[in-house]
Amino acid sequence: MLDRHHDGHHDGHYDVRGSGPLLLVIPGGAGHPMGLEGAVARLSERFTVVTYDPLGLSRGPLDGPVGDQRVEAWSDRAHQLLDSLLSDGESACVFGSSSGGIVALDLLARYPERLRRVVAHEPPSIGVLPDSARQHAMIMEVYEIHRSEGVVAAMARLSAGLEGRSWESHPRPVSAAADGGASTRSGQNVPDSRETQNTPMDIFLGHVLRPFTSHALDLAALKGLSSRLTLGAGSDSRGQLPFRTAALLAELSGSDFVEFPGGHLGVLQHPVAFADRLAEAL
Predict the structure, then answer these.
(1) Tens digits of per-residue pLDDT, 178-208?
(2) Domain residues of the chain, as ranges?
(3) Domain 3-129+215-281 sits in which CATH superfamily?
(4) Which of 209, 196, 56, 223 lies closest to 141 in space, CA to CA?
(5) Which of 10, 22, 102, 139 is the most buried (most CB within 10 A)?
């Protein structure tokens, strides 16, 4: 068993476990690998698993303000990381879930020479959907709710949007008085924002969700690489936005589509079964 980890400003943070062919894992959300331990432990029996944490969030809260994140920046750094770990002519497998799935797709489109197989699980690339305008509006609403009411309200809105449940948005005229005016138009969050502003969920809602879901994939490039690409979605996500998006992406790119155990967070809910399905897909 090999256990290494590395910190660095340019490539975030990564951990290496196991032995065998190299498998790069790109987590969802803001890239914090929390909850992935079970799946990684199982995968490390067959692969050298490199778990990538683009912002280094597993090392603790970030200091200072965080800007909007760019898909290309994450995939450029992932490519540099692979270059530093692989010998000349070697290639790796990549697994990315949710926002990490969007990065995995961008990585394949732009740096195919380093990638042998890519599995993208429920990447929310909603621009491909026929109702994309409505879905982008929903994401904007999540973003605005996060700014004015904080993480919990925004996540409730996002869950409803992903699951296709109706949502009653009702103005809350009392809020400014109730929180002492802290959520005025200055863009300040609710009163407790100072402690929470750099949590992974806060960074995800404020700086990842909007730019990542509106990132346009290079479908022409992915079409040409479809033999190396598998799109996945959880069987519990059937009928929901991320499942619909993944299935359509598979269709548009001409790549395989595989159902995984669980829902959007299947890798956390059923780590061993999920890891085994992933190993099969790879």
Answers:
(1) 443 343 333 444 434 444 568 899 999 999 9
(2) 3-129+215-281, 132-211
(3) Alpha/Beta hydrolase fold, catalytic domain (3.40.50.1820)
(4) 209
(5) 102
